[in-house]
Amino acid sequence: MQKLKVKIGKLELNNPIMPASGTFGYGKEFARFFDINNLGAIVTKGLSLYPKTGNIPPRIYEGGKYLMNAIGLENIGFERFLEEIIPFYENLNCAIIVNCFGNSEDEYYILAEKLNNLQEIDALEVNVSCPNVKKGAIEFGTDLDMLYILTKNIKKIADKKSVIVKISPMLSNIAETGKVLEEAGADAITAVNTMKGIAINTDNFKYMLGNVTGGISGQCLKPVALRIVKELIENISIPVIGVGGIFNINDAVEFFAMGATAVQIGTANFINPMIMIDLIDKLSKFMDSSNIKSVNEIKNKI
C-alpha cells in the first residue's frame, strides 16, 4: 500500500515495520510463522567478521515488564553467513538490513566491504555499542571523534548500501551524537539499543546473568527511547528509526508522532511472533480511521 511506504536513505520500504536486531535471528527462524516478505525490512542479528561464541550462561532473565539479555553478540561470522543465510535472501522481496559490528576499526571496515559486495543486502545497521579493544574497551559510540571517523569511512566503503547507525540510550550527548552522525554521512539512525543493568537472585545472592550485567529491553525502555527520538529529530534532518518497548499500535504511533520514519519491534517478538504482521494491519486501519494519507503525516500531529 502506497500510504505505508517510507524512505530511509536509498531504501524505499513497503511499510515502516521491521524487527530489532537480535530478536529475529536472520529471518529464517520466523519464516515458518508468516510470509516475511510482508515486513518493511528484515534486520539481522549482529554479524561480525569472525564467529563469536558470546557470554557464559545464564544469558536471559525475564523480570516483570522487562527482559534482560547478555547474549554477548553470539553469531556465526561472515563466512557461514555467506554460505548459509545469503541463499535464503535471494528470493525475498523485502529489504535486508544487516546489523554489523567489530572489535576494531579494521574489522568494521573489512566486514563493510564484504557486505557491500553482496547484492542481496540493502543496508548496514552499524552497532557502535561495541568495545574498541585497541582503546581500552571504550565503546565506539561514546567517542565522538572515533564515531565520526568510523561512520564516514564505512559510508565510503559501503557506497552501494544505505548506512544506518544504531546508538545506545546510555549516551549523555544525544543531540551532539546525532549531528556527528549526520555530518559523517549516515543515512539514518536507529534509536535505541538496550540499557545496561543488573539483576540479583535473593534466594542465593547470585547474579541472574552469567555476565553480571545485561541489556534491558521491553516496555520500560519506551519512555527513554521516545525522548531520545525527539532529541534527535529536533537536531538532525536524516531519518530516525525508533525502537524500544513497542508492544501495540499505540506504542508504534507514539514513535511516529515523535518523528520516527520507521520502527523496530524487539522483545514483543518473543511473546507474539505475529506481532509485526498485526501492527502493519493495525497501522493501516489507524491511518484510515484518522484520515491520514501517509506515515509522514503522523509526524505533524504533535
SSE topology:
Blueprint: E1 6-8, E2 11-13, E3 17-19, E4 41-43, E5 60-63, E6 66-69, H1 77-89, E7 95-100, H2 105-116, E8 123-127, E9 131-132, E10 138-139, H3 144-157, E11 162-167, H4 174-184, E12 188-191, E13 195-198, E14 200-201, E15 206-207, E16 213-218, H5 222-233, E17 240-243, H6 249-258, E18 262-265, H7 268-271, H8 275-289, H9 295-298
Parallel strand pairs: 3-18, 4-7, 7-8, 8-11, 11-12, 12-17, 17-18
Antiparallel strand pairs: 1-2, 5-6, 6-16, 9-10, 13-16, 14-15
Task: Describe the protein's architecture and organization.
With 302 residues, the protein is of the alpha/beta class. The chain has one domain: TIM Barrel. It is 31% helix and 22% strand. It has helices at residues 77-89, 105-116, 144-157, 174-184, 222-233, 249-258, 268-271, 275-289, 295-298; strands spanning 6-8, 11-13, 17-19, 41-43, 60-63, 66-69, 95-100, 123-127, 131-132, 138-139, 162-167, 188-191, 195-198, 200-201, 206-207, 213-218, 240-243, 262-265. The strands form 5 sheets. It has an 8-stranded parallel beta sheet with strand order 3-18-17-12-11-8-7-4. A 4-stranded antiparallel beta sheet has the order 5-6-16-13, with no helix packed on it. A two-stranded antiparallel sheet has the order 1-2. A hairpin with a 2-residue loop joins strand 1 (6-8) and strand 2 (11-13). Helix 3 packs parallel to helix 4 (174-184). The longest helix is centred in the last third of the chain and has 15 residues, at 275-289. The protein is globular.
